[in-house]
Amino acid sequence: MSVFISGASSGIGEACARSFAAAHQDLVLVARREVRLQELAQELRTQFGVKVHTFGLDVRDRAKIEALAAAHAEIFEGVDVLVNNAGLAKGRDVIQNGKPEDWDLMIDTNLKGLLYVTRVFLPSMIKKKRGHIVNIGSVAGQWVYQSGNVYCASKFGVKALSESLRYDLHGSGIRVTEVSPGMVKTEFSQVRFEGDQEKADAVYAGKTPLTAQDIADTVLWCVQRPAHVNIQEVVIFPTEQPSIHPTAFGVRPD
Ligand code: NDP
Ligand code: 8X3
Q1: Whole-angstrom Cα distance, residue 69 to residue 85?
Q2: Is the pLDDT of residue 247 over 60?
Q3: How far is the CA of 88 from the centre of ligand 1 (A)?
């Protein structure tokens, strides 16, 4: 068995890679920053003796994921656990000031990318009558907050796709879990605010956010339940973030 993790070059995906490697699972890691993946892979091979394959992949590139799956069929068909983690927010504008290029990026990555990646694993999982798809959603996919608009919509979409996969794959033996975190300190806010460190830091100021490891622990726990148990959804907030709304969340829109 091996575990495929998208967006393993930082944050939650990287922490998942470390946790599954520590649990002696072989890995297939993808992200756009391939050098980071290669460094992580080398570290995990040395530390845990696991096999790790890495591929530079932009999940928006459907032709590339299909070509990789065809060229490396043995590796892809050996995947029993798919962690759809690659994702991002871009900008935090009210919708009337939103930038269409940010909307495209979020929808193409968080939704279409998840679909393109999932699609290449379904035939082999269905044939094997086993598999586990873990989608990293968000509390932003459970509740909307001001200026969250398109990011929230993309994560509501992840929730819809997770539920749809459960219906459509019913009877196949494949489990589908959605893990929906609140505030996690990763590179997420740096990406959202395009490297503006002050804005990114303000998100977490005076609070104790979740760590990427908290989420990886949860993903691993879901996957390690017996085959007849499917943890359908997990919503995890930091203790100091009682709800998604901005006064609790830390950053108010400009
Ligand atoms: P990071 O920015 O630290 O990690 C995001 C990962 O996604 C990176 O490895 C990045 O790799 C990858 N990624 C982004 N775009 C693409 C792409 N087009 N193709 C392939 N990989 C891509 O943030 P997080 O770890 O926090 O984010 C992981 C997931 O968790 C996301 O889906 C996010 O929406 C979700 N989430 C995060 C929360 C938070 O507060 N941090 C809360 C709730 C959910 P690279 O740039 O190398 O391609
Ligand atoms: C990330 C959490 O609340 O910033 O998905 O949207 S939030």
Answers
A1: 18
A2: no
A3: 5
